[in-house]
Write a structure and sequence with these properties.
Layout: H1 2-20, H2 23-26, E1 35-39, E2 42-46, E3 52-56, E4 62-67, E5 100-101, E6 105-109, E7 114-119, E8 125-130, E9 139-142, E10 145-149, E11 154-159, E12 171-172
Antiparallel strand pairs: 1-2, 2-3, 3-4, 5-6, 6-7, 7-8, 9-10, 10-11, 11-12
Length: 176
């Protein structure tokens, strides 16, 4: 009788582990919102899971590209590497502002404190710009300059072409 209870307990624990998957590796730690922007018949979206997608409106939302190249693994197969994902390619942290679509790049601010830029045609990661704290809102563009705010109450201005700061230091608002 004791052996049956121990076996049952072990089976229940293993079942729970299988159904919860590898949330530390593939799960969403800090889920954001699903945000989207449209340009020239393509919707660029970041899902709450941190995946960035380009969808073709003319083809009923057919996926043109996805970053990272494969979805995060979870569940039973979570320990099996199933992707062609490059080192460093990972889903974004929480995103709370819509993507900014420029001529050849899609820019997204993330809770990890970085602006992430993706090639508009392929979805390849192009560059990151690191702020001092989380980026909670969207990014705007004027005269070749990207402007965005951080949760630390700072406003940044960087050149879109070079990712170099325009100001000696971010503008401190004195308030969140």
């Amino acid at each position: 009788m004791i052996v049956k209870r121990k076996t049952l307990a072990l089976v229940l624990i293993l079942t729970a582990l299988v159904f919860t998957g590898c949330t530390a590796q593939g799960g969403v730690v800090n889920a954001g919102w699903t945000v989207a922007a449209e340009q020239d018949g393509t919707v660029y979206t970041v899902l709450a899971s941190g995946q960035v997608l380009a969808l073709d409106l003319a083809q009923n939302g057919a996926k043109l590209w996805q970053y990272p190249a494969t979805e995060a693994s979870s569940g039973v197969g979570c320990s099996i590497i199933r992707s062609t994902q490059s080192a460093g390619d990972a889903s974004l942290d929480a995103v709370y502002g819509e993507p900014l679509v420029l001529d050849d790049v899609v820019v997204v601010g993330s809770f990890d404190g970085k602006l992430h830029a993706f090639d508009r045609e392929s979805g390849r990661a192009m560059w990151d710009y690191e702020a001092s704290t989380a980026i909670i809102g969207g990014v705007t563009h004027a005269d070749g300059i990207l402007y965005f705010g951080s949760s630390g109450g700072e406003v940044y201005a960087i050149k879109a072409a070079t990712q170099k700061s325009v100001w000696a230091a971010p503008f401190a608002t004195g308030n969140r």
